[in-house]
Amino acid sequence: MRGFANNFLQWDAVAPYLSSLLAGFWTTIALAVTVLAGGLIGGVVLALLRTLQLRPLNLLIVLFADIFRALPPLMLLVVAYFGLPYLGLRFDGFVVATIVLGAVLAAFTEELLWAGLSTVSQGQYEAARSTGLTFLQMMGHVVLPQAFRLILPPLTSRVIATTKNTALASVVAVPELLSQANTAQGYTGNASPLTAASLGYVVILLPLVIFARRQERAGGRPA
Amino acid sequence: MNAFISTFFNMHVLGRVWPALLHGFVVTILLSVVIVPAGLAAGLLVALAQTTRSRALRWAMAAYVDLFRSWPPLVLLIYVYYGLPFFGVNTDAFWSVVLALTLNTSAYFAEVFRAGIEGVPPGQVQAARATGLSLAQTMGWIVLPQAVRNMLPDLLSNVLETIKLTSLASVVTLPELLRAARLAQGNTLNATPLIAAALLYLALLWPLVRLTSRLERRMLATA
Fold first, then answer.
1. Residue A52 carries which DSSP code?
2. A133 CA to chain B: closest CA distance, Å?
3. Could you count the other beta carbons within 10 Å of the beta carbon of residue B79?
């Protein structure tokens, strides 16, 4: 037990790295916020474009959504970060992580929202249009709110998964929480910085997980 | 255009690295074949423990689920990989990955099973018990068979996520598909191995993506 405490809960191994761990914590939050904003907006835009029923465009959207849902996000990150430089395109790790993780979230959001939009009954669309609402007003005031309510539980789990995926950015040299903890662990030869980082992630994610659990309880029963 | 093809679709490079990639692909499949059943079994146990009368047990299982759903799998994996040796446990990368990903995915499977079991009307359990079936018989013959049909899309999508997660093993130097591709890319100074690995992942996972999409849509439509 003493061995466990010494190697996993050793404050002396964390204290010197506290400021870099904190910097990593904020980088993780900054990355998560940009990825979530970009991915959710991107997904909504794609789903709306898909309702226009333009065949070639829809084919492209479905192809994009399928590929970004099928491939492991780490694989996509590695291709973008280590593959694109061969074309002379070299981006900062933070930019690559934002774009790739955002695109993955956009793909999942688009698919969920599209499924939600197709479940809103046709009468709702027709009624909204016949009262004189424009296409965007119909979507914004009538259809999207209903679709979002329907997909909220799976969308919340996807938001949680995306936030956790920000840890992958450590592989492409983004100095986020995991990466800082890894460095500190390397210097001290002690796993305590990783314990601290794990706590940091739990602080960020536990509220989301509990929110998701509440929502499932509330929405899980048939109305 | 020629430069593009020779960097990303170079058949000569592909021929050289193909055996290594194939070996990596086999390791990826091997990991999935071990982790998916282990996660399913552990998840089912956790879900069943949540149906018992013991308040302490139910609380402990809920804590287990929330903890491993908020702990980013990559952080957990690194923790296990660098942490266990401090206990004198000599961890091989393969079993570190199996342990970390099983802990992670079992929490997700447990939630799917719990929701499925709760979705079966309580009258079914009472009727089964009244005819003299034991609790285990009730679960095995009455509740689970009915629950599985409702859980199928979520189970399948979690299997997909678990297979994608095996790519994290590359970070702890286990030569699965992504790691094999990275090594090959480093050796040949060419991006073709990365593209080939992505295509292998697509071949494995695209059918699963299509299938889950279809099942999810059907569930939404009948909700």
1. T
2. 26
3. 21
pTM: 0.90
Q: Nearest CB to A79: which of B165, B198, B208?
A: B198
Q: Which of B66, B87, B197 is closest, CB to CB, to A3?
A: B87
In a mutational test of the B interface, the residue from A64, A78, A100, A179 whose CB has the highest number of chain B CBs within 10 Å is A78
Number of residues that this document lists for chain B: 223
Closest listed residue to residue A25, CA positions, set A214, A160, A200 = A200
pLDDT digits (tens, 9 = 90+) for A28-59: 999 999 999 999 999 999 999 999 889 999 99
Query: H/E element holding A91?
Result: none
Rounded CA Rg of chain A? 21
Nearest to B206 by CA among A107, A67, A104, A72: A67
The 10s digit of each residue's pLDDT in B32-55 is 999 999 999 999 999 999 888 889
User: Could you tell me the residue ranges of all domains in chain A?
Assistant: 19-219
Q: Does domain A19-219 have CATH number 1.10.3720.10?
A: yes
Look up the CATH number of the domain holding residue B129: 1.10.3720.10
Say how far apart CA A35 and CA A25 lie, in whole Å: 15
**Residue among B75, B108, B168, B219 with most chain A CBs within 10 A, to mutate:** B75
Are B220 and A161 an interchain contact pair (Cβ–Cβ within 8 Å)? Answer: no
Which residues of B, range 65-94, sit inside 8 Å of A by Cβ? Answer: 66-67, 69-76, 78-79, 82-83, 86-87
Query: Domain of B153?
Result: 2-222
Hey, are the CB atoms on A72 and B201 less than 8 Å from each other? yes
ipTM of the complex as predicted: 0.89
